[in-house]
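Late entry, evening session. Most of the bench is empty. Finally got around to the prediction I had been postponing all week. Sequence below, unchanged from the version circulated by S.P.
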Amino acid sequence: MNRMWGGPAAAVVATAALAGCGGDSAKVLPPAGSPTFVASGPVASPSAAAKPGKPWYDEVRPAAAGARIGAGTGTPCGLPVTFTAPKGWKAKPVKVEGELAELGKQGGFTLVCELDAKSAGLIGLVRIMRADEPATDLTGAADAYLAPEKANVRGRADRPVTVDGVPALEVTWGEHVEALGETMPRRALLVTAAERPVLMQIGGLDEDLHKDLLAGLVLARGTMGGR
């Protein structure tokens, strides 16, 4: 069974992973000397680590702002963080239960919310997942998430980022789909919230759609708060 959200069973997927931490002692700091990409507002702040083009596409601007999502916002998805969703993208909570429950789980994360971009003219989803157990090591959480599909992962790269003043992690990779003979772009954001990582990932069938979906992730990253 292919449980990677961008695989053949789900042609295009955007999933964001955000990992939360309950206090200063739980914050994950980048290694000494590592460049940090600062995302403290709707547009990520310039830094030495900003790189246009593959694999990070830092030239992508945030999508037009829509509703606030998360705890205390009155929206369907009760998350431990809040952020602004792109205009027209629809949020809906997900209950992982019954015979298909395993389809909503991967590498220690469980699907809790989806943002559907269809009404904004895009083919894709943002699937928001939360870690089942407390964790402070975001790289380790990303490793665990990707482990079930390790054989299909191509060209993974990680970088530390700062989201709302808190260290976070971005991961980019390609997912090889053997049946199609193609490798599709993937991107995830992890940031600590309430002691458990929350993961947001985006996908896309091709580079152009990936960048369109990335604009939504850039908006969420730059407007996040509420930990």
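Two things to note before I forget:
The radius of gyration is 16 Å.
The chain is about 10% helix and 35% strand.
Will write this up properly tomorrow.
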